Amino acid sequence: MANMTDCEYYLVCFLLLLLSSLLFHFIINKLLKLKTHPKLPLSPPALPVIGISNFYVASKVN
Fold first, then answer.
1. Distance (Å, whole) CA 17 – CA 10
2. N or C terminus of the chain: which is more exposed, having fewer CB within 10 Å?
3. pLDDT, tens digit, 9 for 90 and up, residues 5-60
4. What's the rounded Cα separation, in Å, for the pair 25 and 2?
5. What burial letters (b/e) apply to 4-28, b meaning 16+ CB within 10 Å?
């Protein structure tokens, strides 16, 4: 039976630590995001014509 060398052992430990910390990070972020940012209802699409019309009318008056 093949034994793992020290480098292989440390590599496996490092990868396990990395994967578990990333998983922990994503879970905590998901839980915090749900509490701090409530889902808002959808808003109607913006109407850029209304904003531009003020500039158009002002330029015709001058």
1. 10
2. N
3. 888 999 999 999 999 999 999 998 888 776 666 677 787 776 666 656 666 666 66
4. 35
5. eeeeeeeeeeeeeeeeeeeeeeeee
